[in-house]
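Hey all, sorry for the wall of text incoming. These are the two entities for the joint prediction.
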Amino acid sequence: MREPITRILRGSALALILLFFLFPILWILLMSFQTNADILRIPPRLGFTPTLSNYVALLSGKLATSSGTLDITFLRNLGNSLLLSVASVAASLVLGVPAAYAFARYRFRLGESIAFTLLSFRFAPPLLVLLPLSLYFQILGLTDTYGGLIWVYQLITLPLILWIVRGYFEDASPDIEHAYRVDGHSWWRTFTRIAVPLARPGIAAAGLLAFIFAWNNFVFALVLASADKQPVTVGALAFVTAAGIQYGQIAAAIVLSILPTLALALYAQRWLVEGLSLGAVKG
Amino acid sequence: MSDFALPVPAKRWRVGRLLPYLLSLPSLLVCVGIVIPFVASAIYSLQRYNLAFPTGRAFIGFGNYISFLSDPSFWNTVEVSIIYTAATVGIELLLGLAIAMLLRERTFINNVISVVLMLPLMTAPALASLMWKLMTNPGFGVLSWAVSLIGLSNFKWASDPHTAMLTVVLVDIWVYTPFIMILLLAGLRSLPPAPFEAAQLDGVPGRFVFFRVTLPMLSPFIVTACLFRLLDSIQQFDIIYAMTQGGPGDSLMVFQVGAYLEFFQYTNVGRSAALLMVLWVITYFLSDRFVRQWHKLRERRQGHA
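and here's what came out:
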């Protein structure tokens, strides 16, 4: 292992791997600071005068094109992504943490099958549920409401929170809770004062991951949301097909859309392995 | 795992028995609302049901499924889905395993690389597709320019039926290889060091150690990661839809993209539902296998903890 040749081979393999996985992100980042003229230059050049005009256009909502100004709603898409993700995660925490506690602490009839039914939602084809829902939402008056979307987003966020938090409750010894109960405290007090604080790191990790997954979701809103409720993933796609749009602005929109999840991922990286395997593997 | 309600009086005891149900009920109710459309899909799949001709709606038994058997577009969907799934999961497994082996030692630089490699996985797949679309644009795309340097001047990436599959598979590999990598890396680092130290002392060659010790010990992690990816890959929608919407022609018409277009473009609800039910049967068997495997890993983790 210490031979210089193996070390050189290993180093160049890692360099190639880093190039493949990081180049797209860096390239789009560079593109977002270029004018259209710079982007269209062949061969591409690394030397260019960076411009913030793409970001200014996106944030002001006014694009100057050859055929006049174009109004864009990218900021609204960003706001929708934020609202949908935060609200879905909050709802999932309220619903999922008590259920996770029940699955971890009690062996009850149907318990395991309820838990697995919830897990299996993670693996069914989403369109199987979404397409009939698009018909039902019209009847129920939920079409194009944030409430309807947040409800359906539970399919993404709830199983994740349930299974990760359950693992954390199971790892904590029940003895402390038991002692607290014997002291005469109510069940609810035990849950809120002892169990939840002990599982707090797990709850935080599950919440962050669920946020990332909700933010990155595409198909739910594509089927169920109209233009003014769409998150960035769907909004950016519509952006590409819009007439008169400039490539630098698309790149800037992509950068603004992926920045939040990449930043959160770097922050939450300690828990990613556990979250991505739904609590089966510890990192 | 003892029942908490032991030392309390009889009335409280009943509440204690109900408590776990009460706690999990809200979660379940939210999801029951989601089971209803699932049943609806199953029923639609047995109907002739087109939104454009509401009066023609009728129960036709397995008619939609039987018509698939003689329908070349259905078999095209099956073929395209299998190629996509096999190519993505196969390459991602090999590449992910190789990277995990390279990063196995817990050094600072290896940890930094493994964190940085996670960034593609945290990029929304639909947006990843757009990024690659910009890079493969025939007019200014940096990758179009790069392949022209090696003599492929007419390489059209996703807009050519011959290379469209290659393009989306590449995006899938870019996004999801890190998933397999981090799962296998966690697996590798959790293996007991004793067998490896013994092999090194005995001077056993590295290749032998890899195939006879590392791979067998890592296999539960490999199987879990693969099943996870198989389940996602056979259902892939975001990357393909954002790149070409299933085109050019029907060269990328995988199950969910086909069902989506059948529903919204041709308003053929019955056929769309039947297509999704076929996909569901496939994912059902895969997820059943997956859940058992996943359970094993979890119990093991708890055994270690």
